[in-house]
Every structure is written in structure tokens, then in C-alpha cells.
Write a structure and sequence with these properties.
The strands form two sheets. An eight-stranded mixed beta sheet has the order 2-3-1-4-8-7-5-6. The chain is an alpha/beta fold. The chain has helices at 12-21, 40-49, 68-75, 104-123, 174-183, 201-210, 232-248, 263-276, 290-293, 313-324, and strands at 2-6, 25-30, 33-37, 55-64, 89-97, 128-129, 136-143, 146-152, 192-194, 256-260, 281-284, 298-301, 331-337, 349-355, 358-366. The N and C termini lie far apart (75 Å). 30% of the residues lie in helices and 24% in strands.
Length: 378
């Protein structure tokens, strides 16, 4: 079977590396995600273990799509009765780019019509629509007048790990945080510090990765487990995969420190870490304290920048003074707004990323001995 794991823009290569480690077949990075192949064993493993993927999609139909009629007929080429029955619920979402069909609501509506009409003709009744918590989630992508219809294996996006308090703001999604931790070059053994931790997302993801905590274990079930064809054999495979994931967990990991100057952020990090079963050392500290309290290792952080970075000049000076004051042996990775003119070292590695709609870059560099300048007196 073929699958497509979606991810945040710029994190495709991190997801590709992750899926290689998870032993997927024919892994190929593409814009907006990574394609891979395998059977249900690989699909379940991806749902349980991927920290970077947002959704795991399975294509079921692909066809030319110049208008609504072509979309309707192409969608009906797949037998949806294999996964959907009148007693189950349905939701359809879509995106479109460079196509005659330019309205996503029309695409979703026309796709839904094709599916429910097919089910009505077969069973005499049709499934209901439930946009909040559907049994079967369908996703349609139309690009350059060619449509691909997918079944969404997870239904609820994978960045929802279950440990964040309901309604709590998430300035950094868990999947993007996991990608940043991997892209930073951290080896999962050296000490890890986030000196501006906010709600603790980066540190929690680092701990989960280091201790082999499968993020999908927090879910009672995935979307595909509500499909009509979810039989005893697949249920047994799911149970076996979950049991294996629990056995892989490590009780100990490297030292992971999360600190922030804001007492509320520190308490929020502690609460989130407890719910996520993360083993962190959480402290209240100023960012400049990182110079004296942090052993050589990785410093990874998402500074609290606003829309107008110029107004935070003092904050940025404090941040970079702290980073430049670190001793050799540290590696620094900061998620920075792309448009800002900040004193990033020339030798830093830069990776373009999007934090939601904000264009950013991940700047990473190793702290080196400062070269002594030779003074020539004349």
C-alpha cells in the first residue's frame, strides 16, 4: 500500500529520516510531506511512532479533474463501502492549487455528495456528516487539475499528543518541535537545555525521543480503527504494536533542562511534563544564566519574539549575549523570525521553516574557541 505522511513546510527531510528509522519502504520526500510504502504493520507503526508527521494519508483514487463533474465521477471510482457504512459518520476536507476548481468548500461538498450517493445506492441510506469527530475522514488534494482522494488514517492530527491542557495556547506545535529537535543535530545522549521553554514543548519532545516514548500510545484509537473493514486480524496487529511500543520505553535518558524567567511558564511546563510523563528538570531562571549553569551539550529554543522584532531589541541582545558567552562544546539552535536582522554567526547552518503562518529559520551553530587576534604594534 502507498501512504503520504504530511508535515510542516521545511520539515520534510527530518520526517524522511524518521520514517527511515521506523523501517518504512520506498521513503521519498515530497513537498509538504513524505511518501512511503508498506502494509498495515508499517501504517500502524507510523501512526504510533512518528513525532513529526501531522497526518498519515492513504491514496485511494487519482484522476484528472477539470470540473465538479469529473471530481464527482472520479471519487466514485473507489468503493467507499469497504470502510464506510450508513451507521458511521464522515467528514471531507480539501486543498486546491493551480486548478480550475479553486474553492475548497465546493470540492469538499462535491466529494461528499459522490460518497453518500454511492452509499445510498448500495444500502438505501447514507452516512451522516460529523466534522468534529468523524469515523471516516477523507482528504482531497487538487493540484494542476489533477485530484487525489485520500483516507486519513489518524483522523485527529498527530500533533495533539493529549498532554496539553484543553484550550491552552500552543505557540509551537508538538510535531514542529519534534522536527526542530531532530534538525538541531542533537544526538539524544548529550545534555539538552531550553532556556526559554514557554510551555515546555521542545524539552518534552526531546525527552520523548530520547526515551523512545511512542506519542501515539496516548490515543485510545486511530481513525482507521473505526473503519468498517477493521477486522480481528488488524485489531490483533494493533494490540501487538502497542504492546511492543510500551516495551520499548526507557526509564532513564539524558539530562533535559527546561527553564524560563516567567513563573507561570515554569508551572505550565511542570504540569505539561507530568501529563506527558516527561523526565525534565524545570527551573525558573533568566536566559543569561545558561552561561553558568549548563554543561556542554545542546541549547535548543524558540525565543518569544513578537510580530515586530525591532521592539524586542533588548530581549535579543540578552539572548545573543547569553549564547555568545557559552563555552566550547555547546551547540546552539534557535528558531528565529526570517525577516529579522539578528547577529547569527556566519558559520551557522540555516533551515527555512514555517511556524504556522510565520516564516522562520532554524539557525544552528557550534560554539568554538574565539580566535585570538594577533596584535601588531608599530
Amino acid at each position: 500500500m502507498r501512504f503520504f505522511a504530511t508535515c510542516a513546510a521545511g520539515t520534510e527531510l527530518a520526517l524522511k529520516a524518521e520514517l527511515y528509522e521506523l523501517r518504512m519502504f520506498r521513503v521519498r520526500a515530497d513537498r509538504g510531506g513524505v511518501r512511503f510504502e508498506g502494509g498495515w504493520e508499517q501504517a500502524i507503526r507510523a501512526c504510533l511512532w512518528s513525532r513529526i508527521a501531522v497526518r498519515i494519508l492513504m491514496p485511494v483514487a487519482e484522476f484528472d479533474c477539470a470540473d465538479g463533474d469529473a471530481l464527482y465521477e472520479g471519487t466514485r471510482s473507489f468503493d467507499f463501502s469497504s470502510v464506510l457504512s450508513p451507521e458511521r459518520t464522515l467528514a471531507v476536507s480539501s486543498i486546491t492549487k493551480d486548478s480550475a476548481l479553486g474553492h475548497t468548500m465546493f470540492i469538499a461538498q462535491r466529494t461528499k455528495d459522490a460518497i453518500v450517493d454511492q452509499l445510498r445506492e448500495r444500502f438505501g441510506s447514507r452516512p451522516s456528516v460529523d466534522k468534529r469527530d468523524p469515523d471516516v475522514a477523507v482528504f482531497v488534494r487538487v493540484a494542476k487539475d489533477r485530484a487525489t482522494v485520500y483516507l486519513d488514517l489518524v483522523a485527529e492530527p498527530l500533533h495533539r499528543r493529549g498532554w496539553r491542557a484543553p484550550g491552552a495556547p500552543a505557540p509551537l506545535k508538538e510535531t514542529l518541535a519534534a522536527a526542530i529537535v531532530r534538525l538541531s543535530g542533537w544526538n539524544r545522549k548529550a545534555p539538552f537545555t531550553d532556556p526559554m521553554c514557554g510551555s515546555g514543548t521542545l524539552a518534552i519532545e526531546a525527552d520523548g525521543w530520547a526515551r523512545s516514548l511512542a506519542p501515539g500510545l496516548s490515543r485510545d484509537r486511530f481513525g482507521f480503527e473505526r473503519w468498517a473493514d477493521h477486522d480481528a486480524e488488524r485489531r490483533a496487529l494493533c494490540a501487538e504494536s502497542r504492546e511492543h511500543a510500551r516495551a520499548e520505553e526507557l526509564s532513564e535518558g539524558p539530562e533535559i533542562v527546561a527553564s524560563d524567567v516567567d513563573a507561570k511558564a515554569v508551572q505550565q511546563t511542570r504540569d505539561n511534563a507530568r501529563r506527558a510523563r516527561a523526565r525534565l528538570r524545570v527551573t525558573q531562571a533568566r536566559v543569561e544564566d545558561v552561561r553558568s549553569t549548563t554543561p556542554p551539550g545542546s541549547i535548543v529554543s524558540n525565543p518569544p519574539y513578537g510580530e515586530r522584532v525591532e521592539t524586542d531589541a533588548l530581549l535579543w541582545r540578552e539572548i545573543f549575549d547569553a549564547m555568545f558567552g557559552l563555552t566550547p562544546g555547546h551547540r546552539v539552535s534557535l528558531l528565529l523570525p526570517a525577516e529579522a536582522r539578528l547577529p547569527v554567526p556566519r558559520h551557522a547552518e540555516r533551515i527555512a521553516l514555517f511556524n504556522g503562518a510565520i516564516r522562520c529559520e532554524l539557525a544552528s551553530w557550534d560554539v568554538e574557541e574565539r580566535r585570538r587576534r594577533r596584535v601588531v604594534r608599530g
